Amino acid sequence: MEIGTFTGYSALTMALSIEKDGLITCLDKNEETSIIANNFFKKAKVDNKINLVCGTASDNLNKLLKENNFFDLIFIDADKEKYINYYELAYKLISKNGLIIIDNVLWKGEVTDLNKNDKLTKIIREFNTHIKKDQRIEKTILPIGDGITICRKL
């Protein structure tokens, strides 16, 4: 699953890598970018592997929970203000030993600069602290790009 699809680059990369019968559920709230993403999926001939759901991620995650859906991998790259909420919902939806991957956790390196105290930098710091304290998972931060945290459910 992908939370925050935008124009579909990450989902497309995953769809090209998964087995023939694999399926990726993508959640995004923006109808315009969802149309762009769907067009890319069709051009790449992977639209049969992707279920793009438009609407708020929280609502759709709660719906998936009620339907008892479980996922092997969940990639979070959406509105940073809701990262903790998305993570907690993702934790409930992830299979045992499944991976939750979160993008932008180093926030252009600003999370390590304690002089940077803008709203989003503080939010990402709080999220990183939340993950650090979570004993239900194994976790690591990869300092590539804008930083990625990989969590494995125990």
Automatic annotation (TrEMBL):
GO molecular function: O-methyltransferase activity; S-adenosylmethionine-dependent methyltransferase activity
Family matches, as InterPro entries: Cation-dep_OMT (IPR050362), EF_Hand_1_Ca_BS (IPR018247), SAM-dependent_MTases_sf (IPR029063), SAM_O-MeTrfase (IPR002935)
Entry keywords, A to Z: Methyltransferase, S-adenosyl-L-methionine, Transferase
GO BP of this protein: methylation
PANTHER family, per database record: CAFFEOYL-COA O-METHYLTRANSFERASE 3-RELATED (PTHR10509:SF14), O-METHYLTRANSFERASE-RELATED (PTHR10509)
Protein name stated in the entry: O-methyltransferase domain-containing protein
